[in-house]
Amino acid sequence: MNPDFPSGFKSPAGMLLPDTLENILAVQAMFPVTSAAEMLGQGSENEVSEAAQAAGEETVVAVWNERANRLRENDESVALFKAAFPGEIMRESDITYAHAANAIAAFEIDSWRADNSPYDRFVRGDFSAMTRKSKRGMWLFHHRAGCSSYHSGDIFSDMEHYAIAMPQIGPGKGNGLERNEDWGCYLVTRDEGHYAT
Questions:
Q1: Which long-range contacts (CB under 8 A, 24 or more apart) does 166-171 make?
Q2: Do residues 61 and 55 touch, judged by C-beta distance below 8 A?
Q3: Burial category of 18 from C-beta neighbours within 10 Å (exposed 0-12, middle 13-18, buried 19 and up)
Q4: Average pLDDT over residues 12-18
């Protein structure tokens, strides 16, 4: 286990990420609520953004705690969390934002799972599922083109950061002189090779 990531997942939260997250989708679900551009809000716009502003380096923890408080205050949410996590959530105070992230991930996996493509059927043993051309493409992907050295495992990712010369889409993350750039993975890794402009 990497001592910088005791949860087992590399994330912008580092050691602050809870170790109860079930998969990478749950990890991803932890962050939209911490982003002012997505769900957090600005300055003193609401009690969650106020808590984040006052928290300093542990901003994400403050936000996650405030979001969990909102869930704990809603009787219907409490009943749903108790049903979804039997034996783990006995009373409202047991609910954490990690539970919400795990629930979001479970919903995403169930609702948007795509595992019946010709490739999936081929991997499961139906060797007639893919055309000859597709099989050649799969061979290139896994061998000559080297794609699988980065796109590996069940979810086709080695979970590392790469600068791939992808143009910025959208307003950015507030970097640069005019505060409209997104410096990409550099913001997480501080590795110059991951710097994107």
A1: 166/196, 168/196, 168/197, 171/37
A2: yes
A3: buried
A4: 83
Q: Could you tell me the two tokens for 194?
A: 């991951």
Backbone angles phi, psi at 175, to 5 degrees: -90, 165
Query: Quick one: tokens of 58?
Result: 């542990």
- pLDDT 10s digits, 25-71: 999 999 888 876 666 666 676 676 676 666 555 778 888 998 899 99
Q: What is the pTM of this model?
A: 0.65
Which has more confidence, 181 or 92? 92
C-alpha distances out from residue 81 to 38, 52, 127, Å: 24, 25, 43
Give residue 150's identity as a one-letter amino acid code. Answer: Y
Residue 194 DSSP one-character state:
G
Judge whether 35 and 67 are in contact, CB under 8 Å: no
Identify the H or E element spanning 61: helix 59-72
Instruction: Give the separation between CA 25 and CA 105, rounded to whole angstroms.
Output: 5
